[in-house]
């Protein structure tokens, strides 16, 4: 059980080393037919949408961007659906159930990248790009080197994120539905392939929108049911939670003073963040990593113009922020309604099914068996929406950046590019299923944190400086980007999360839980240093292209228009 | 070459320079507010756990940390709202005027 808990927590909680030993198998639960029935209904609905979307997906533009006709409101919901993972719902509420306040630190980290994306990037990205963030990063630079870097970096982020999601999906579904791990991974892989392969961005977008509505709706219901018990007074709920934690500590044999301190401890930060360097580094990875996630940046190309890109971030930030407020209430709700209810506890007083079941048990406590099945189906849908977005982003990096631009030098027609995309989707899906099964017994805790660290140290500096710094050159961006990516990768391997927890060494070589505080500034520094010392002819072209790029980024003239249907 | 020429004409328009300055200052300010608020919070978590654990009212349980955390979430949403409002009212009109006056 610990293994699942740690895996799921880590899925949702990047940047923090989970050095805990990963032992013990996940317990397969009894087959849950209510949940399976509700999920089947979701699958049928989304497959019907995919069929409808498939008829509208003819060109590469349809495939990558849904023809650019998504509204800001729809895109905001889809972004929220792309970003709020099952792991963050279950993992963060579980963390709050266990430690109280500490869970809020994660939630905030996941949210604060969004304003930064809006202020510095969203509109410019929409104005300069067509399908991928590499379009933007390579706008005024030599195409082959910059795009190759961006494509590789995209694939690294996508692959690690995808493996982590697949393993989490297998564990979660085994737990919630009582299905075998392998079946769960294959079902996720096959459904994701159908959505992306046939429905492209249109189907992916609607799967994400539906999932976002379902998740926000059910989380709202749960939070409202919890708060209603306390006359909608958070103070009364917190007081009760402190009393419950105190009572549990007393029951465990603690003295009155210790028990009281244990109860109070859920109101403030615990030992979740150990040293200040890790705290800052982790904070940077969450904030700036969000701004460098390729599957998130890609969503800005689905709207018709910069104004719609802008409003999609406002909607997304609102929904995601609201979701994290709900998660906090749900975590506390689990303390007051689940932690003392013998129906949800085993003989030793631990949650049946493991720590991550806090929100699931709460669903049963407030809504009975039917709502429990519904929440389980929503959790499954949630994973699907996230992996579909990731796969589409990985496929576009291969077909649009590597094949069409690097290999064919921009001479590939839309049909050929689309063909390569679809083949890549198949390859990625097979790889995701195979790796998901292969990594079942492995500790994948580091993978999402690695994806965020790479996004913050490679993609983010390259994209930001290509947009905002006249002096950036091809050579500087590629050198700095590769250094950031490489450092994030190597330091993560040397950190406690991999070196100790996976490779079983006694002491980590790199003692901090996230590399970002080193790798990101070094990437910026390298881009600057290599660019200012770059005397090449290409460097002159790069710098002289800045004014024209800026006019287009700021005003949107010449920006790619929505294709008409 | 139409676009290049058009871009050059827009770049030479003093209203364009004024827009960049106005928008640049505004976004820089908002970015700074977000960075200071977030990393300030992280530094408090790292260095002053006791302060965050303190109840906001004596006799109550709701801690300063929870209030600040919720405030930070609301601040992130509010800042994006402030930006969008200003961009819709001011920047969009300025951009539209530039694009209209410098046709391809």
From TrEMBL, chain A:
Molecular-function GO terms, alphabetical: acetate transmembrane transporter activity; symporter activity
Keywords noted in UniProt: Cell inner membrane, Cell membrane, Ion transport, Membrane, Signal, Sodium, Sodium transport, Symport, Transmembrane, Transmembrane helix, Transport
Source organism, top-level taxon: Bacteria
GO cellular component: plasma membrane
GO biological process, one term: plasma membrane acetate transport
Subcellular location: Cell inner membrane
Recorded topology in the membrane: Multi-pass membrane protein
Record-stated family: Belongs to the sodium:solute symporter (SSF) (TC 2.A.21) family.
Protein name (database record): Cation/acetate symporter ActP
Originating species: Sphingomonas abaci
From TrEMBL, chain B:
Native source species: Sphingomonas abaci
Keywords, sorted A to Z: Membrane, Transmembrane, Transmembrane helix
GO cellular component term of the entry, any: plasma membrane
Transmembrane segments: 26-47, 59-84
Stored InterPro entries: DUF485 (IPR007436), Inner_membrane_assoc (IPR052959)
Keyword Membrane: yes
Alphabetical list of Pfam families matching this protein: DUF485
Protein name: Uncharacterized membrane protein (DUF485 family)
Membrane recorded as keyword: yes
